[in-house]
Amino acid sequence: MTITAVAERHAEGVPGITQDARANVSFARQSILNRDNMLCAFELKLYQAPVAETREAAEVTDSERPKPGPSAAERFIQAVLQQDVRAALANHPGYLPVTRELLFDEAIRSLPAERFMLELPPDIVADDTLIARLVELHGRRYRFVIDNVAQADETFARLLPYADAVKIDMNRIPQAVLPKFASVLKSAGKLLIAQGVESQEVFEQALNLGFDRFQGYYFANPQGAAARKVSAPRHALLNLLQLLGGEPTVAQLEAELKLNPVLVMHLMRLANSSGLAMGRKVTTLREAINATGTNRIARWTQLLLYADGRKVALEDDPLLQLAATRARFMELAVERLPEAGRDETDAAFLTGVFSFVDSVFGGSLEHTLNVLALSKPIRDAILLREGALGKLLTLVEALERGAWSDIESACSTLDGVQVSDIAQMGLVAAAWAGTADRSAEATGLERIED
């Protein structure tokens, strides 16, 4: 029997949807990877809905107006510091776009300097007053990134001495100047971030030029996962998934798992986590299967398909985190669709988790889905973006890009669902993905070896 998303959030200690509507600010997050292709930070993609003052509000007299509350900057900072945003960052630094007005508001000092890199827009007015403010904030240990750089203009030149990092738009900067530009910036000691990295070729170009960080979804594309060989452990996971799809007995599961010692180790630790243990330590494989349940074993196995084989924390694996976040979002969002029933939460999770399984196995996505024997609604959602699940899959892909106009358009077709709802479900899903590993007491687990 499927547990509802709300009940699971409480059971697993995952933050809920707690956004303060007065802030009028929503966020999506986008992965930033290091040179080892591991997560090292997230950019917060900002959405601020327009607020139209009503005629009734405009006609209120001064004596009738309520006392002024927090300033716009204070509400913005409060939104950044809300529990769901903090949890979605999963202990990684956040890259936060800022405006000139925000930089001059004292509310910015509420931001913990060690947790955020402040992104300066390339068209900010870089006069002497701004430079003085950057120097002051830098003295308080705030760090700055020049964002969306495509050329070295006068504004860039003025900001550069006070920036710790430069984010270069790989799709807009002239290719002829890129090598020299990168070399000069590296010589100046700047952290170089490649923005808009959507293919393995662009990643390798930036890597060879000495870039330190990479932002984009190249790692989720088949060509970006060339090193993810379909190893024996992954085939074992696939065999286990096929077995789980047929309502196996405990004896059948036990026999399959015994062929894979690494999987047994994962399962024993999962079963002994605080949320699953039966009041005592689980010591046998049969007890672990009974304590965990086939539904949780299946979900855990589905996500482990994306683990890339290195002995690092699962929360730092970009593909696994993307798959887990997408699957959880689908599960949360399906309950908001009038044409989708609660019984479809499992189908929604499966749609999310297998929507880019070709990045692991390579070859045709359709062929891989056939091997997994997924139902027709799930296959049609992934391959054709059809049905309620297809609509949600398109929506979560827009959220991953921070494509707010696409999300607005999609929300116009969803009864009672606002952009802020979508963004907040995305944060809740990200928080779940980042804490699922720790909730199973799995920090430092051996990874699936390739």
Summarize the structure.
The chain has helices at 5-11, 55-58, 72-80, 83-89, 100-104, 128-139, 154-159, 178-187, 200-208, 232-244, 250-258, 261-271, 285-292, 294-304, 318-334, 345-353, 358-361, 365-372, 376-384, 387-401, 404-411, 419-439, and strands spanning 25-33, 39-48, 94-97, 116-120, 143-149, 165-169, 191-195, 213-215. With 450 residues, it is α/β, with parallel strands linked by helices.
Question: Could you explain the architecture of this structure?
Answer:
It is globular, with a radius of gyration of 24 Å. It contains 22 helices and 8 strands. The protein starts with a helix and ends in an 11-residue tail after the last helix. 47% of the residues lie in helices and 11% in strands. α10 packs antiparallel against α14 and α15 runs antiparallel to α16. Among the domains are: 5-51 and 69-225, EAL domain (TIM Barrel, Alpha-Beta Barrel); 232-307, no CATH class. Mean pLDDT is 82; it is low at 1-22, 52-58 and 437-450. Strands 1-2-3-4-5-6-7-8 form an 8-stranded mixed beta barrel, surrounded by 6 helices. The chain has 450 residues and is α/β, with parallel strands linked by helices. A hairpin with a 5-residue loop joins β1 and β2.
The secondary-structure element order is HEEHHHEHEHEHEHEHEHHHHHHHHHHHHH
Helix content: 40-55%
Contiguous uncertain segments of 5+ residues: 1-22, 52-58, 437-450
% residues in beta strands: 5-15%
Instruction: Report the principal-axis shape.
Output: globular
* Radius of gyration from CA coordinates: 24 Å
CATH class of the domain at 5-51 and 69-225: Alpha Beta
> Termini separation (Å)?
34 Å
| CATH topology type of the domain at 5-51 and 69-225 | TIM Barrel
Question: What structural class results from the helix and strand content?
Answer: alpha/beta
Going by CATH, the architecture of the domain at 5-51 and 69-225 would be: Alpha-Beta Barrel
In total, how many beta strands?
8
Number of helices: 22
Mean pLDDT: 82
Strand order of the largest sheet: 1-2-3-4-5-6-7-8
Largest sheet: 8 strands, mixed, barrel
Going by CATH, the homologous superfamily of the domain at 5-51 and 69-225 would be EAL domain
